[in-house]
Amino acid sequence: MLYHQLPPQFNNTPVRLSKKEAKLAGNFIQKFFGAYHLHEIRRSLAALTEIALTTNNTHFEDAKERDSILWFYYELEIFIEAAWFQNQHSIKHKPKPKKKNK
């Protein structure tokens, strides 16, 4: 089952991260930005949006639906950039391991 087809009780509930993993969300952000560069994310996001809007799909025949996809694209791009900045900040300000006294 695709995640957008889940029952309504999952509407505002994370479905990929467990509660334990959610406490370590920063680790997943670091992993994501370690695997993908910002320009790669933008390119993939743009490609997905272009495919959605240019493919012969009845779901996107309505102008409001296409507008909604474009709005989501821009908002998601802003979110990704904010997460990227947060990740960069956490890398720069990561506490250094304490040296053990011998």
Report on the structure:
By secondary structure, the protein is an all-alpha fold. It has a domain at 33-89. It has 4 helices and no strands. The protein has helices at 19-22, 25-35, 38-54, 63-92. The protein is elongated and about 70 Å long. The protein starts with 18 loop residues before the first helix and ends in a 10-residue tail after the last helix. The model has no long low-confidence stretch (mean pLDDT 83).
Layout of SSEs?
Blueprint: H1 19-22, H2 25-35, H3 38-54, H4 63-92
Distinctive features:
single chain, 102 residues, mainly alpha, 61% helix
Task: Give a short overview.
This protein is an all-alpha fold and 102 residues long.
Low-confidence stretches: none
Q: How does the major sheet shape up?
A: none
Number of strands: 0
Instruction: Return the string of H and E elements.
Output: HHHH
Sheet-strand content, in percent, reads under 5%
Assembly category: single chain
Percent helix, as a range, is 55-70%
CA-based shape: elongated
Radius of gyration, CA atoms, in whole angstroms: 19 Å
